[in-house]
UniProtKB/TrEMBL annotation:
Record-given protein name: Sulfotransferase
Residues of the active site: 99
Chief site of localization: Golgi
SUPFAM superfamilies assigned to the protein according to its UniProt record, in alphabetical order: P-loop containing nucleoside triphosphate hydrolases
Residues annotated as domain Sulfotransferase: 90-334
Classification via PANTHER family: HEPARAN SULFATE GLUCOSAMINE 3-O-SULFOTRANSFERASE 5, HEPARAN SULFATE SULFOTRANSFERASE
Record key words, sorted: Disulfide bond, Glycoprotein, Golgi apparatus, Membrane, Signal-anchor, Transferase, Transmembrane, Transmembrane helix
Any one cellular-component term (Gene Ontology): Golgi membrane
Molecular function GO terms recorded: [heparan sulfate]-glucosamine 3-sulfotransferase activity
Catalytic activity, reaction form: alpha-D-glucosaminyl-[heparan sulfate](n) + 3'-phosphoadenylyl sulfate = 3-sulfo-alpha-D-glucosaminyl-[heparan sulfate](n) + adenosine 3',5'-bisphosphate + H(+)
Membrane topology: Single-pass type II membrane protein
Organism expressing this protein natively: Cephalopterus ornatus (Amazonian umbrellabird)
Localization annotation: Golgi apparatus membrane
Gene: Hs3st5
Transmembrane segments: 12-29
């Protein structure tokens, strides 16, 4: 009898102990993630009045995907009123450069509790048909956010499209502009690889990179080839500088964003006057993927799609040398204008 009672007592103690340990673990995990994500975001100056410095905790739920529909721009009138949601024009735009790492940059910035990304490339300023629909159309394409959060969109075609600087200037002359660049020859090959993959998907054949990048008549670099032209960063930037002072641009090192993303993101946080909230916790290296992936919290993490980080075809070394020599003077000018120097050959 006594033995039976002791066994029963032991069983009860075991159940109670398990419950206590379980609750403790849950609390540690919860407090840990809340602490890290505590969304006190004094966004200064242009980004909102001081009285709105604090992002309510529900902003986190919103950001972490519970209100997923809102982020896509879908919400009922009741939800908008209840959560005090707005669709805001972007305070910062990633204007390029194509294949520089624009998607990675946007997704990583979106880790910040005060940043809300426009998931799709809107192509408002570079597409005449879209632009003709007016600024309200553009605003309605933005995700819902809290008034003191900032919206960021990315459309890499903006950087190289003639009309875009003036159009963006007309919308907001003090907007912040982000440009992410990679070593120009690597970027051109990445650009080629994307087009090649598109052709292959449609069972089409395509020229070799060497054939496109080098003019067969002159044996010089083919400046008519778009992938080459896009990599002449200084030429495009000079057009932008007719409208915006250099202080309104921030140059992100796309090669470093691949290998060491955190310091690059911290520079962007500073440029956007955001308090530092993105930490090493939010970024982990995924060996299978070969890239850094994103960790939002204890349960939610993600890597970029497989279309980011393609294997590049092998390119003749003499062509690479020729391209690097060609880009060299343009790069020097780019360093001079931007005040950011890269170790490009
Ligand atoms: P590659 O496919 O040449 O490797 P964009 O988003 O502007 O199209 O840029 C795509 C590039 O982003 C990829 O080029 C890849 O190298 C780079 N990139 C940077 N960080 C990445 C990340 N964390 N995951 C995947 N790709 C990343």
């Amino acid at each position: 009898m006594l033995f039976k009672q002791q066994a029963l007592l032991r069983q009860k103690l075991f159940v109670l102990g398990s419950l206590a340990i379980g609750s403790l673990l849950y609390l540690v995990a919860r407090v840990g993630s809340l602490d890290r994500l505590q969304p006190l975001c004094p966004i200064d100056g242009r980004f909102g009045p001081r009285s709105q410095d604090e992002i309510p905790l529900r902003a986190l739920q919103f950001k972490r995907g519970l209100l997923h529909e809102f982020r896509k721009g879908n919400a009922t009138k009741e939800q908008i009123r209840l959560h005090n949601l707005v669709q805001q024009l972007p305070k910062a735009i990633i204007i390029g450069v194509r294949k520089g790492g624009t998607r990675a940059l946007l997704e990583m910035l979106n880790l910040h509790p005060a940043v809300v990304k426009a998931s799709q490339e809107i192509h408002f300023f570079d597409n005449d048909e879209n632009y003709a629909k007016g600024i309200e159309w553009y605003r309605k394409k933005m995700p819902f956010s809290y008034p003191h959060q900032i919206t960021i969109e990315k459309s890499p075609a903006y950087f190289i499209t003639e009309e875009v600087p003036e159009r963006i200037y007309k919308m907001n002359s003090s907007i912040k502009l982000l440009i992410i660049v990679r070593e120009p020859t690597t970027r051109a090959i990445s650009d080629y690889t994307q087009v090649l993959e598109g052709k292959e998907r449609k069972n089409k054949t395509y020229y070799k990179f060497e054939k496109l990048a080098i003019d067969p008549n002159t044996c010089e670099v083919n400046t008519k080839y778009k992938a080459v032209r896009t990599s002449i960063y200084t030429k495009h930037l000079e057009r932008w500088l007719k409208y915006f002072p250099i202080e309104q641009f921030h140059i992100v090192d796309g090669d470093r964003l691949i290998t060491e993303p955190l310091p690059e993101l911290q520079l962007v946080e500073k440029f956007l006057n955001l308090p530092p909230r993105i930490s090493q916790y939010n970024l982990y290296f995924n060996a299978t993927r070969g890239f850094y992936c994103l960790r939002f919290n204890i349960v939610f993490n993600k890597c970029l799609a497989g279309s980011k980080g393609r294997i590049h075809p092998e390119v003749d070394t003499s062509v690479i040398t020729k391209l690097r020599k060609f880009f060299h003077p343009f790069n020097q000018k780019f360093y001079q204008i931007t005040g950011r120097t890269f170790n490009w050959p």
